[in-house]
Amino acid sequence: MTANLDCELVLDTAYFRRWLAAAHRLFERDSARLTALDAAIGDGDHGANMVRGFQAVTAGVVQTPQACPGDLLTQAGTTLTNSVGGASGPLFGMALRRTGKRLGAEPAVSAEQFAAALRAGAQAVGKLGGAVPGDATLLDALLPALDVLDRELAAGATVLGALEAARAAALDGADATGPMQASKGRASYLGERSIGHQDAGANSVVLLFEALTMAADPQGQPEPVVTPEQGEDTRSAGAPAVRAGGRVGVVLVSHSSEVAESTAALAAAMVGSGDLAPVRAAGGTDDGRIGTSAELIHAAALEVDQGHGVAVLCDMGSAVLTVRALLGDTDGRTMPADTRIVDAPFVEGAVGVVVTASAGADLDMVVAAGEDARTYRKG
């Protein structure tokens, strides 16, 4: 059966659509288990978050079909970043987005190309989260799986055989996170008490590799039912404290104070129970009218600056002009170093920027996450 499947296996857009659909079903199946793993040392929302994210991915595949694997996975990664709270969205979103960009515009890719693209995605995740092997994170499942995938392909294994071996390596890697002491994420707050608990993200990597093998069979791949009830929100309320060391700050500039404040609240809600990056709304004029205020924007930028740069999103052109004037101001209103305007739609861009900044990404990654929102299509 494996051989028959593999001789027909083409890594084209249809295959990757099947992969995302299979991942959606697996996260639905294992949501409770993932949540239980996360509840022991984290926020207890990982399973629901992954279901919510892949529900949105599945809907996006239907609503906005992509012509090549690279565009499909880039879209999926951006969707995860903007639809999943906590660290899961930006981390898994970054992995898929970077994988997709590495694949480019080819209508079909080789297994070696896909393996190299996944490796680029893993490297981006490590940079985003500041994690290395042994930190009890998703990398402890992902990197061993990629090592085995490369080795099996180099040895002449079939594509499906290599993927199955990679899945087994991911499972071993996820199991190995149990004896580790977590040093990243909310689990790290527990210190030695995190020992003895597997990482939920590493177990999600196992499901993604399982989905890769499932996608090899074009038959028996029914589309999952997308309903509003799936992925019920279990995130806790409240704004957590900012992590030591600082992160990229975010300023949301709108002509309306209400729009700026509500967009900031929406973006913060998407972070959920994760650590929220510094975000300030700078909407309206000093006296509450419609417009923009250089003084409000300048004060907000200074307030969010933690020494890692400031990303500014604007709702309309005149707001951009106000920020540009501030960046070139010679009258003593010095903006923080590395302040950059993000060329992105206001609401979608704000969500991507705030979620990614909250995960600890550097300024380049934060800006890229916002600008990816320019590719969204809604019709």
Automatic annotation (TrEMBL):
* InterPro entries xrefs: DhaK_L_YcgS, DhaL_dom, DhaL_dom_sf, Dihydroxyacetone_Kinase, PTS_EIIA_man-typ, PTS_EIIA_man-typ_sf
Write out the transmembrane intervals.
none
- Report residue spans for region: Disordered: 218-239
* Record-linked SUPFAM superfamilies: DhaL-like, PTS system fructose IIA component-like
PTS EIIA type-4 domain boundaries = 247-379
Give a single Pfam family match: Dak2
Q: Does the keyword DNA-binding apply?
A: no
Chain ranges of the DhaL domain: 14-214
Q: Which UniProt keywords apply?
A: Kinase, Transferase
What protein name is recorded for this chain? Dihydroxyacetone kinase subunit L
